Amino acid sequence: QVQLVESGGGSVQAGDSLRLSCAASGRSFSGSIMGWFRQAPGKEREFVAGISWTGGRTLYLDSVKGRFTISMNDAKNTVYVQMNSLKPEDTAVYYCALDTTILYSSTIYTTAARYGYWGQGTQVTVSS
Fold this sequence. Notes:
four-stranded antiparallel sheet
């Protein structure tokens, strides 16, 4: 059974940094895609960043490019997102999610429906 457990959220000031972690367990993750999504109150869940477990390809939401960095530690089955220069508009619940629909796909999809496994979410609050 796949389990995704996020950690690292919190309340910070604008300009601060946070690192979110997603510890994955329950199966081999080779060829799959790990994504980070976020959902602010009253808004739809949106893709933030994704990484291919094999090969380390990455994709980012335009508004976080240059501020967020997604990475992984294969030995620990953990994916991270380093978030720098945080802004109030980054405030949301952040979720990690796993896409195993097509293994070794060359595409990192940004649609939440592609991702069959989700963590419980971690709150990030950025105040001005």
